[in-house]
Amino acid sequence: MNRRTTICACAAVAVISAAAYLAFENNALMLTEYEYRADSVSAELDGFKIVHLSDVHGKRFGKGNSRLIKLVSEQSPDIIVISGDLVDSRHPDPEAAYELVGGLAPIAPVYYVTGNHEERLPRELYISVMENLSSLGAHILDGNAETVTVGGSKVSIAGFKDSRYFTVSEAKELISGGAFNILINHRPQYAAGYAEAGFDLAFSGHAHGGQIRLPFIGGVIAPDQYLFPKYYEGVHRFAGGATVISRGLGNSLLPLRVNNRPEVVSVTLRKG
Ligand SMILES: [Fe+2]
């Protein structure tokens, strides 16, 4: 083998390896499990499990999203929360969202808020997407809250449709006295405000894990937070509450995830 042939062969191996790695990083689902231990969790809610999905952007994991639905089902959640961007505004494919929600609803109650992408959809399409998701069983939250009862304990699940703005005073109105208060809101940069408003646990997405995660540094870029975002994954604790941020499952403007596999989040409540 001459020198030129060797260089070509090495380049081909490098390209194929990079393509295989990126295919894995963008399609291989992973499960992140957290336990949230706090005094606000009653004995009856100890073990209550929430599965959190975000930013699917019309992506399918298997036919009809079967791999994603199976992974969620295996967790036996008490509720499923979806923090927006189920449908991508640049390439709207509502059928993918319908297949997913249709598969999730028989597992556990599904609570959903819109992301910036749904809010950008043409008006007629937006209305039909909301109507269809609702008829498939999604509880669409838009400035309201619903309650789940476990024994004598209550879990209140509140949510807002996506907005560039978040006000603590408006959010406070959704706090339910005597309940464990959950908030679903697409944007993670208001994480401290969710706790300040009185929510015990909030769920957000939007940041796509910073798209590329560098070792020892973390996420590189996120909408609204730009380079090296603070809120791009994980559980962020504040006085009185915490916000869980999903790295999401699909892509949008940047069709590339590096060291940032599509994430299903599971949170189990534990009595403090
Ligand atoms: Fe998104």
Q: What can you tell me about this protein's structure?
A:
This protein has about 270 residues and is α/β, with parallel strands linked by helices. The protein has one domain: Metallo-dependent phosphatases (Purple Acid Phosphatase, chain A, domain 2). About 25% of the residues lie in helices and about 30% in strands. The strands form four sheets. It has a six-stranded mixed sheet with strand order 1-16-2-3-4-5. A six-stranded mixed sheet has the order 6-7-8-9-15-14, with helices on one face. A two-stranded antiparallel sheet has the order 10-11. Helix 6 (about 170) links the parallel strand 7 (about 155-160) and strand 8 (about 180-185). The longest helix has 25 residues, at about 5-25. The structure holds fe (ii) ion.
